[in-house]
Amino acid sequence: MIRVLVTGMGGGVGQGIVKSLKLINDLDIYIVTADMSELASGLYGGDYSYLVPAASDELYFDRIKQICIEQNIDFYFPGTDVELINCATYSSELKDKFNVDIIISPVNVIEIADDKYKTVNFLKENDFSYPETFLPNEVDWEQIKFPLIIKPRVGCRSIGVHFVNNINEAKEAVNSLEDPIVQEYIEGSEYTCTVAIYNGVISDVLCLRRDLRSGDTFRAFPVKSEVIESYVRKIAVKIGILGSCNFQLRLTSSGEPKLFEINSRFSGTTPFCSYLGFNPVEFCLKAKLGIKYQSNINYEKVVLRHWAEVMVEKCSLDDLKESLQGKVSALQVSNLL
């Protein structure tokens, strides 16, 4: 039996990892879930649940170590952005002391991915196409071409992203953000792409044309594109990802891909990929275990995201909160979870 810990079960990434784990039908997997709130619906989709401090808490990794020991964890999948740096920092210790593999990229990859200005500089320095990007003090506002995108250097889920058409809108957007960048606007469809590298093996690239709602993908259309796949694969190899990684880009009018964001983790579209025939969670597990994995992507399907309900006994919530751990079961859980 493979024993897996997944954190961040109140959000789409952690829940998506669990959904993908449950689609693996030829491995015996025991799923331990963790979150800082007993109201995180994803907690109730695993076999055993724990409450943990906030990832920013200095005791967070002491709690993670405790869980790994108690549950004899083999693999740890972090489900939140805020724990990535610490996960990468502690990965060697968890492996050496407890034989736990954290599916995580190195610290330098996470740092480049987290900072959109560093992302663009990485692309520029390594001769990959990129969107023209500036710090506000580098912009000649009288000469720059509108429209533009102004957004935080570090951010998520499209929070603080402004589409501006003129100097006044641009300066208002810049002044509203703590540490913004100014970026060329590329008109057209947006693509989110997933690729994984683990144990020296590189996966296929799954490219999804997507529709967004509040920064999250809620409709996805798989696209076969050798241009995009080659571009993403080369970037993934050059930057040195480990595990699954998400690349977001647009195509110029001439068909040239320009990457504007990297998420150096499993993404919210992980279950989309899994349903379509490329399960990045399964790929990583089998790459580590030395088992051949073959994706079979169905480009004739479309993924439509929907809400699902989880019914939980109040006593289960109380027991989990009081004991900080427990084998809890939901009364009704969507078959997608």
CATH topology of the largest domain: Rossmann fold
The oligomeric state of the chains shown is: single chain
Name of the CATH first level of the largest domain: Alpha Beta
Main β-sheet description? 7 strands, antiparallel
Average pLDDT works out at 93
How many DSSP H or I helices? 10
The proportion of residues in beta strands is 25-35%
Net shape: globular
How many strands in all?
A: 19
Cα Rg: 20 Å
Please name the CATH architecture of the largest domain: 3-Layer(aba) Sandwich
> Distance N terminus to C terminus?
20 Å
Helix content: 25-40%
Helices and strands, in N-to-C order? EHEEHEHEHHEEEHEEEEEHEEHHEEHEE
> What's the structural domain tally?
3
Q: Class by helix and strand content?
A: alpha+beta
| Low-pLDDT residue spans | 330-337
Descriptive account of the structure:
This protein is α+β, with helices and mostly antiparallel strands. It has three domains: 2-103 and 308-333, Rossmann fold; 109-114 and 187-304, D-amino Acid Aminotransferase, Chain A, domain 1 (2-Layer Sandwich); 133-184, ATP-grasp fold, A domain (Dna Ligase, domain 1), CATH 3.30.1490. The protein is 32% helix and 26% strand. The protein is built from ten helices and 19 strands. The protein has helices at 12-22, 60-71, 84-98, 107-114, 116-125, 167-176, 226-239, 270-276, 280-289, 314-323; strands spanning 2-6, 29-35, 48-51, 75-77, 101-102, 133-134, 148-152, 162-164, 180-184, 190-198, 201-202, 206-213, 216-223, 243-251, 257-263, 303-304, 310-311, 325-326, 332-333. Strands 10, 11, 12, 13, 14, 15 and 16 form a seven-stranded antiparallel β-sheet that branches. A six-stranded mixed β-sheet has the order 5-4-1-2-3-18, sandwiched between helices. β12 and β13 (216-223) form a beta hairpin. α1 (12-22) runs parallel beside α8, α2 runs parallel beside α3 (84-98) and α4 (107-114) crosses α5 (116-125). The two termini are 20 Å apart.
